[in-house]
Every structure is written in C-alpha cells, then in structure tokens.
Design a protein that fits this description.
The structure holds two protein chains of two kinds.
Chain A lengths: L21 H9 L5 E5 L10 H19 L6 E5 L5 H18 L3 H5 L1
Parallel strand pairs in A: 1-2
Chain B lengths: L2 H9 L9 E9 L2 E8 L14 H5 L3 E3 L8 E3 L1 E2 L11 E2 L9 H5 L12 E7 L2 E3 L4 E2 L16 E3 H8 L20 E8 L4 H4 L8 H15 L5 E6 L9 H11 L3 E4 L2 E6 L6 E6 L5 E6 L1 E6 L1 E2 L2 H10 L24 E3 L9 H19 L25 E6 L11 H9 L4 E7 L5 H13 L4 E6 L2 H14 L7 E5 L1 H5 L6 H21 L7 E3 L3 E5 L3 H11 L4 E5 L21 H14 L3 E4 L2 E9 L2 E8 L2 E7 L1 E4 L3 E3 L13 E3 H11 L6 E8 L13 H15 L4 E6 L9 H9 L3 E4 L7 E5 L2 E8 L4 E7 L1 E6 L1 E3 L3 H7 L26 E3 L9 H19 L3 E3 L5 E3 L9 H5 L6 E3 L4 E3 L10 H5 L5 E3 L4 H12 L2
Parallel strand pairs in B: 8-19, 10-17, 11-12, 11-17, 12-13, 20-21, 20-22, 22-23, 25-26, 25-31, 26-27, 31-42, 33-40, 34-35, 34-40, 35-36
Antiparallel strand pairs in B: 1-2, 2-7, 3-4, 5-6, 9-18, 14-15, 15-16, 24-43, 28-29, 29-30, 32-41, 37-38, 38-39, 44-47, 45-46
Helix pairs in contact in B: 4-6, 6-7, 9-21, 10-14, 11-12, 14-24, 15-16, 15-21, 17-18, 18-19
The chains are: A mainly alpha, B alpha/beta.
C-alpha cells in the first residue's frame, strides 16, 4: 500500500504481542526510546487466542511503573488492528509520533 | 513479485522445464498421452550455462530487444530478462553472424553452434494449455497515430518504461525526446469492446485496473507534477478491493477519469506533444494537448495458439479463446486436456492463478494412481556445526530494481554494514531473490565461511522461507538468518525523503546484524499428516472442493449449517449463457452423496477447533450430537448472500424487488403483463457502507433484461447504471441487450435516481447525461441490482481464528500469488466466502482450493517450525504459571520425570509462557530474550 508514516518508528517483529514482556518495554525506555507501542490483533481475534490481552495488561503495568518513577505513562501505549488495516496502522503511527512529539524527549536522556 | 515464484518453479524437483519447444501433437487418452515436441535449438546448453553473461558482454551484434518492446537493444547472445528461469543464455539465430567470440569466452563450454532442431516425445497423464495472450496491435487504427507519432505508446510499452529493468531504467520519459511528460492520457478499450474496427467484441477485463496502476506509478516516479487522464467508456474495477484502489486514484491521488471515446490524435510538430480530439458527454468536440498518449491495449489470443489448438483439435470460441462451459470452467472439449489463464478467457492475475490451480486439480485426478512414482527426492547437505564458532556475518543489501535502490542509498548502506561487529562480507544486488543471486549467495557463504546471513530487502512474510532454503542448500542451519525490511518498512513509505530512508535502512541493518550474532541452530520436528480434509460450506464451491479432493483419493468431511446442500445456488435458475443451474446442482448433490469418500454433516455447527497444519481437530455439533473430527486441511466455502436493500423503498412495495426475485417472477409468471421494467444498479455496492463492486450485478441485470425481451419483446427495459461491468466474454450480452432495445441510462453516485410510488406504477426519475435533463419513467416493476454480502461467519471466524476484511469476506494469504490460501497454513478459501463471483468462477476456485489442499494431503509428513518454547528444567521451580497461562494447554507437569514438558508439535510458538515465567526459565526459540533485547539496544545505541 506504500502508505507514508513517520520514519522515527522502527518495528521489532515478535510472533505475538503476548511475547512482549514488561522487561522488553522497560528496556526500550531505559535505553532512551521516547516512546514504545505494541500493535496487536483486534481484541477477540488474537491468532493465539489471548496474547493481545496479556500484552495490554503488561502495557498498563508498565504505565503504572513509569508513573511511579515520574516518567510520563503515556510514552507506552497499546494499539489493536487487523492485518487488513494498513491505513489504520499508518494512522496510529502518525498519532503516536505526534503524541510523543508533544511529550518531548525521554527524560532519561536528559540525565545522560 | 513474480521473482520468488520463478525461483520456486526453477528449483522445484517435480518440475521439468523444457524451453524453446513447441507441441506438435498429442496422442492417446487421459492418463496416458504421448506428446510430440519440436525442440528448437538454443545454441547454448542450459545445463552447462551458469548465466554469467560473459557471452553477451562480448557479442558484437546488436539486435532489437523484444522484451522491452523494441525500445532498446540487446545482443545476439541474450537472456530475456535478469530473473529468467532457467537462467541460461541463448543465441538469436536471426541476427548471429557466427563470429565465435561467445564460444571462446564461455568458460563453462556451453556454447554449441552445431545445435539443431530436434523432435522428442513425452509420456504424460494430463495436459494443461496455458499459452497466454498478446497485446492487441493498434497500428491498424490509424486515427490514434500509433507507429506514426513516437509519443503514442501501448500500455505494454509504458509498462516497460515504468520498469526498473526497462529501457529507461524506470525514469518516466517519452520516447521522442526523452523528456519527462507533464500530461499523460490513457485511452481505454483499444482492441477490446470494439467488434467493428478490431473484431474483438469482448472486454479484456484487465485494462481499467492496469491503466489506473500505470497512472499511479507514473505519478510516483515523476519528480514534478504529472497530470493523468484516463478516457474510458466504463471503469471496470470489479475485483476484490479494486474499487477502493479506483477511489483512491480518483479522490486522493488526483487521477482524472473522462467518459469519452477518442476521435483523432495529431502530433504538434514543434513540441512532439499530441493534440487529442474527443466528444464529451454533451456531444461537444473538445481538443486537449498531452505530452504522451498510452493506448490501453486489450488481450488477444496469438496466431500461434490458434494453430496449436487446431493441431490438437481444441475447440475455440468466436474470439479464439478455448471453449469451456460454465460448470467445467477449465476443461476443453478433449478429455484430459485442460486450460487456464487468458487462453480460457480474458482475466487478471488472481483469476489466472486460481484457474491454474483448478487445472492442476483436474489434471491431478488422472495422475492420482501414479502419485509419487517419478518424484525425485531433494537432497539437503548435512548441516555444518557452527556451535562455538565466532559469528561471521554476511550482509546482502537488495536494490529491488529501483524499489529500494531508487530511494535508499544502497552502496552507503552496504558500506555501513561492513563496519558493524562480526560482519565479514557485504554485497548488494539488483534483485536478491533472483535465481542467480541465490546461487551467488551460496557461493559467498562457502567462500567466506559465513555462519550468519542478513538480507536487507523486503518482507520476511514473502521472502524469508526462500532465503532460509538457500542457507540450507549450502549446509547452514536456516535459523542463522535475519531479514531487515528496508523496502516495505522503509523505501516504500519514505520515498519523499531519501536521506531519512537511508538513515533508517542503516538502523534496520544494524538491528538485524546485532540479532544475527545472537542466533542459534534449531532443528525442525517432522510430524505425520492426517489425510482427511474438512470442507466448511455445502454450496457449489464447497461441494466442488470436496469432490476435487475425494476424486484424488482422500477422505472429506463436508460440513453444512443448513438442512440440505446447495447454498445460495438453490435460489438461482440459469447462468447468463443459459445453462441450467438447478439441473447442475441436482447432479452435483447426487455426485457428492454417492461418493464413498465424502461424509456430509448437515445442521452442523463448528464449536471447537484446535491443532496445526496437517493435524487439526474440530468439534462439530449436529443438533444434540457432538463429534470430534480429525483432519489435515480445511477448505472454507461459507459463501455469501444477496444484499437486502435499504434503498429505493425496498420492502415497502411489492413492485420493488431484487434481481433474484425478478428471475423467480420471470420463471413463474413470465413477462406478458409487464410493459415497463426499470433496474437500478449498484444497490448496496460502491457506496459508503460497502465501497466495493459486487461484480455480478451488471450481468444479472442484463441476463434478466434479455430474458424479459425474449419473453415479451414489447416490454420496455431501462437499466440505470454507474458503469456497466460486463467483463470478459460477458460483454457480448451487453451488446446483445442494446441490440434488443434495452435502454441504458448512466447516473452519477451523487445524483442517484429518485423513486416514488403511485397507484399506476413506480415512478423513477433520473438525470440523463446525454439529454442533459431529468427523465421520468413509470414502471410496473422496479428491480434493484442488490449486491452481495458475505454470510455471517462471526462464529467460525472467532472459533477458528480466521481473519476477515471489513466487508466480512475472508482474507487470502496474497491477493495475486496465493488467492486461495489463507494466512494460516493448510487452510484454504474458495467461492463467495472470498469475494463476490460468478458460479463458474466459484467452481474454478473450489477446484483450486482442492488442488492446494492436496499439496498437503499428498505428503506423509511435514516439518514443523522450530519456533517453539523450551524449558530450562534446571532453573524451573515448577510453579505451574506456564501451565495456567498457555492458551493451548501445552505445558504439562510430568509426575514421573518431575519436570514441565512442552510438546513442540503442539506448541504454537506465541511466547506467552516465556513472558510469564517468573524465573525466565522458558525461552521461545528464535525469539529468545537476548534476540529481542539486542535489537532494542542496537537501535538505541546511536
């Protein structure tokens, strides 16, 4: 479809969002990523039944942890879409980027 | 796109390629034919030739290059195109001067000037004719100026102009002065829908879509502004999701569409521009200037195919397409000889691929008995043990023609890759997926003792398996491989900002290299295949799929939710060709019921589903009973139904009906009492709620209109339409309808007809474009051409995890190359569950699904993916979190060994257990923690 979306997003492939654990998301923030988002199947259509629900729980947990240590929780988000929804993927990518731009750089980067 | 397919055919051990040959005769009967061939000399032995191209580099003779439609030159020693299979050169005897240079240069000693025409014979069980088509030659149509004005080109020539491997390397230039065009006009229906001037009364089915595509790509390739205008009679974007593409071109990308036929084209002497004269819809003559004109030439059957058909005694229709019938769409008049693709009738790539699989199914039925007899086994070399070795990574960066190379600075990416840790070799290629590059990669792996490979190219979804095979072929474990997607995730989406795209490519390569260094060897488990199939849906498609599979000797369970077989077809009477659907259905149901290999379950509902390719278990409830069925493959044929209109007062008046209702009415009551019938097209299609075209409604309307005219020639029939989409040979019926006096009035989406009711008839008012005013018609019957809507498959979709598009049709694995496969392996799709289609097309797709299913069923065992979860039993504390968390209940505690066990044949590889394990004692192979964190670290290292 060749839909344009911001180049500052880099995709890391996982078999299912159920494979994304808390450590992985925290590691990205710790290493200086300004934002992390997980893109899973639509709720109820997970190829592995429930991986996307588990991911959402973990995203919520990571958000809670970030809040506790004083980092904007909204740097970490979860999105859902089906493989037939390229335009939505691009729209979410734009939305996330604009949102992170508003938040500014990861505060951990200022410490370094 | 076609390159991986070519490579697959080239490397398939069950396919023998015999090139430069012609079929002289076919004798014998189904199951045992003798085919006589004439093998024309190639002068270069394809077995010895390595495709290095030294011969062509030294050949002193130039010749016109027919592959690029004569727009550039090649040598007398040549290869048709870089991805050719077999990758072997040939000498063109027409122009070769016999100087001997190529013979001297060839290290492989493949050149043989003494090569001669030979005659050979083959013994085969079935034959498939797929001789294809050629583009119509417009030079006879002198008013278009083709052949006279260099800037008037055919669409085939324009395809080559757009192509990276074409005469201008993908830069859009016009032939006269190599200037970038500012305005391009496409003329549709050149050599199609034009019996008077060209003899081709049919619609070629593909030109509307390719013209839109060419316009979109041209706009993308041109640096400045480009104005694209497509002159057409009707835009026929009737395929699955094609209307969305048309709308995008029209409303988003600014391609203009004008309803007009061209009067004349003249060249403006000073500029080489073209002055185009045409009459607009109001009849006014208009003259416009274009820098280039593209003639959208239709498909026709070449003379050589007609001669072949005559030699073989194959019946052709009036346009020289192979004669087939609605209910046996790929069978010729000769038993055992089948056909597919455009030789069967004009069609696009998905249609051709579907028919190809259907023909393979029919052909396979004659070979079933002898299956496996002549098969060669692939020998994979023993794996080199790389454990303990330091990573030696090779990085191959792909240009993908200009898809990547035109945007991303590939040499810079390659240079950058060479600086990364553990990288010992880098290379870049025009097409990394081509056969010659595959061979080159193998050589480099061996030469540089590479033990990890990174390919920076396109999507792993389409190409990972192929590259992994390449690794295996030189003794390297296939999991020592990683792909950086610098096309789909980079060059394609950042084409406006090449510097940023190059930076991103470097990031992606750095991430892949980091991961490659952490990869380990994994072995794949072999599991047996259950040789029973399950077909879901007992309509025409489901029954044909079941028969196709059963006729090749496999058991089938056919599951139908209703109380009887037949589906939607039970409501239909005749095809437009006049074939009796009810008689066919009766015979089909009888055949299914009589087949000992098919077990039919009616009133059936799928309640539970589990398993994996080759080993599924499905629980089916039939009323009070429940049974578990074990099977190796699934064919989904759940069908579609007629849309129930909300528009035009439907349901409020008995005189407002749908096309299906009208057929019923004509069958039972005739048309003697009807003085006027109005039909409105695109009801429930091509609108806000359903953007797509329903494909079948134009022909339904014309079928019924012709039927009315036959029953009562006095009845006035009006068809109010947006575009008439009688594609392929259906166009003849449209022509016939106009001849019979059916009146067609076009309306715009934004000004639909208005319908009111009155005592003496239904009043329809519509704005006629030609008259330029509103027309009022009073009709006895208003027939709505209601589109198709998918059956409600919410249950099946959620129980079986099968994805659907927003319109509720199931999604195929690849629109063009895998139109009957679903993304889940061993699950296939056919009929209207895939998209709206005609009965003949549903039958073809059903046979295609059967054929694809048999590719699994014919095997005794398959290899499973090694991407499964592994427990480190030393660190495991048996907390049972994994046992509770696994969505498939795979991990179990074995009381005897006292450890947690994960059966890799059952493990789906989702990785949930690995994430929940509090001791991190479970790792998902190929996605181990380190293999993911290294990507994050590498990305953020800069």
């Amino acid at each position: 479809m060749r839909l344009e979306y911001p180049a500052n997003i880099k995709i890391i492939r996982v078999p299912c969002t159920g494979k994304v654990d808390v450590m992985l998301m925290l590691r990205a923030i710790q290493k200086g990523a300004d934002g992390v988002y997980c893109v899973g199947c639509l709720e109820g259509t997970c190829h592995y039944n429930e991986g996307n629900f588990r991911c959402r729980e973990r995203v919520d947990y990571v958000r809670m942890l970030l809040k506790e240590v004083g980092i904007e929780e909204d740097r970490v988000r979860m999105y859902n879409l089906s493989s037939g929804e390229g335009p939505t993927f691009a729209a979410y990518a734009k939305e996330m980027t604009e949102h992170i731009r508003k938040l500014g750089p990861n505060p951990l980067n200022k410490l370094n | 796109m076609i390159s991986p397919k070519l490579v697959e055919v080239g490397r398939h051990t069950n396919i023998d390629l015999i090139t430069t040959s012609e079929v002289q005769s076919i004798e014998g009967e189904p199951g045992n034919f003798t085919v006589s061939l004439i093998n024309h000399p190639r002068y270069i032995d394809p077995v010895k030739c390595t495709g290095c191209g030294e011969c062509a580099r030294h050949c002193p003779v130039t010749a016109v290059n027919p592959y690029n439609k004569g727009m550039d030159l090649r040598r007398a020693t040549y290869i048709e195109y870089p991805q050719s299979v077999p990758l072997a050169f040939a000498i063109d005897p027409e122009v070769c001067i016999g100087c001997g240079l190529c013979e001297n240069m060839c290290i492989a000693k493949a050149v043989n000037y003494a090569d001669q025409k030979r005659e050979t014979k083959l013994t085969v069980g079935s034959v498939i004719l797929a001789s294809g088509s050629e583009g119509y030659d417009p030079s006879k149509l002198d008013y278009l100026g083709y052949g006279k004005y260099p800037n008037v080109v055919t669409s085939e020539e324009f395809e080559r102009i757009l192509s990276a491997s074409g005469p201008y390397f993908g830069h859009v230039m016009r032939p006269l002065d190599r200037e970038e065009p500012k305005r391009i006009a496409w003329f549709q229906c050149i050599g199609s829908r034009d019996k008077n001037k060209t003899g081709n009364g049919y619609c070629s089915s593909v030109c509307c879509m390719y013209a839109i595509k060419e316009a979109m790509i041209a706009k993308e390739h041109i640096h400045g502004e480009l104005d694209c205008v497509i002159f057409n009679m009707d835009m026929r974007t009737f395929g699955k999701d094609y209307e969305k593409y048309y709308n995008r071109a029209r409303y988003k990308d600014g391609v203009k569409f004008v309803k007009a036929r061209i009067h004349t084209v003249n060249q403006v002497a000073e500029t080489g521009d073209l002055s185009v004269r045409y009459a607009d819809e109001s009849g006014q003559m208009i003259e416009e200037i274009f820098s280039m004109v593209v003639l959208s030439v239709g498909l026709q059957i070449p003379k050589t195919s007609v001669e072949l058909a005559q030699r073989l005694g194959i019946d052709l229709n009036q346009y020289n397409f192979a004669k087939t019938s609605s209910f046996a769409p790929v069978a010729t008049n000769k038993p055992g000889i089948y056909t597919c693709g455009v030789f069967q009738g004009p069609k696009d790539i998905p249609g051709s691929v579907i028919e190809a699989s259907a023909a393979a199914c029919e052909a396979g039925a004659h070979l079933a008995e002898a299956r496996g007899r002549d098969i060669e086994k692939i020998k994979v070399p023993d794996q080199t043990d790389v454990t303990g070795q330091n990573p030696r990574i090779g990085v191959f960066v792909c240009n993908c023609g200009i898809n990547i190379g035109g945007i991303v600075d590939v040499p810079a990416v390659q240079k950058y890759a060479a600086t990364l840790p553990h990288v010992v070799f880098t290379d870049s290629n025009l097409f990394t997926c081509s056969q010659d590059t595959q061979d080159k990669i193998k050589e480099k792996i061996i030469e540089h003792k590479l033990n990890r490979v990174v390919v920076a190219s396109c999507s792993p979804k389409t190409h990972e398996a192929m590259f992994m095979e390449t690794l295996e072929a030189c003794g390297l474990n296939k999991y020592l491989f990683d792909m950086a997607n610098i096309r789909n995730q980079d060059s394609w989406i950042h084409s406006a900002t090449p510097e940023i795209a190059t930076l991103k490519a470097k990031d992606l390569v750095r991430m892949s290299v980091a991961r490659a260094a952490t990869l380990k060897t994994f072995d794949e488990k072999v599991v047996p295949i259950n040789k029973q199939a399950m077909v879901i849906g007992g309509g025409v498609a489901g029954m044909n799929a079941a028969l196709g599979i059963a006729n090749q000797g496999f058991e089938v369970v056919l599951v139908e939710k209703e109380s009887e077989l037949g589906g939607m077809s039970r409501r239909l009477h005749h095809t437009i060709e006049g074939d009796d659907i009810q008689a066919y259905l009766k015979q089909l149901i009888a055949e299914v019921n009589a087949n000992a290999k098919i077990k039919v379950l009616t009133h059936a509902k799928i309640v539970h589903f589990e398993g994996f390719k080759g080993n599924f278990a499905t629980e089916v409830s039939t009323g009070s009973e429940k049974q578990e069925i074990k099977h190796g493959v699934i064919v989904v044929a759940t069908g579609a139904k007629e849309y129930k209109p909300k528009e035009y007062l439907y349901g409020e008046d008995a005189r407002i009906i749908t096309q299906i209702d009208l057929t019923d009415r004509l069958e039972s009551k005739g048309a003697a009492d009807l003085s006027c019938v109005v039909m409105i097209q695109c009801v429930g299609s091509r609108n806000q709620e359903n953007e797509n075209c329903s494909r079948i409604c134009c022909q339904s309307a014309i079928k019924n209109a012709l039927s009315i005219k036959k029953l009562n020639p006095e009845t006035h029939v009006f068809i109010l339409y947006r575009d008439i989409r009688t594609y392929g040979l259906l166009e003849d019926y449209y022509t016939e309808a106009r001849k019979q006096g059916v009146i067609f009035i076009r309306f715009d989406k934004d000004t639909p007809p208005e319908v009111t009711r009155s005592e003496d008839g239904i009043r329809i008012s519509v704005r006629d474009h030609i008259l330029g005013q509103k027309v009022q018609i009073s009709a006895d019957l208003l027939t709505l051409s209601a589109g198709m809507t998918a059956e409600n498959t919410d249950d099946i979709s959620s129980v079986m995890k099968l994805n659907r598009n927003p319109e509720g049709y199931f999604i195929e694995a690849h629109v063009k190359l895998r139109p009957v496969d679903m993304p889940t392996e061993a699950v296939f799709l056919c009929g209207t569950a895939h998209a709206p289609k005609l009965i003949s097309e549903a039958i073809a797709q059903a046979k295609a699904a059967a054929s694809r299913a048999i590719t699994f069923l014919a095997k005794d065992a398959i290899k499973l993916s090694a991407i499964t979860a592994k427990v480190d039993t030393d660190h495991c504390v048996k907390c049972l979190t994994c046992v509770r968390s696994c969505p498939f209940n795979v991990p179990v505690f074995n009381p005897e060994t006292k450890v947690i066990e994960i059966n890799e044949a059952l493990c789906h590889g989702c990785g949930v257990c690995a994430c929940v394990c509090p001791r991190q004692a479970i790792q998902l192979s190929f996605y181990e923690d380190e293999q993911l964190t290294c990507k994050i670290d590498a990305l953020l290292a800069n």
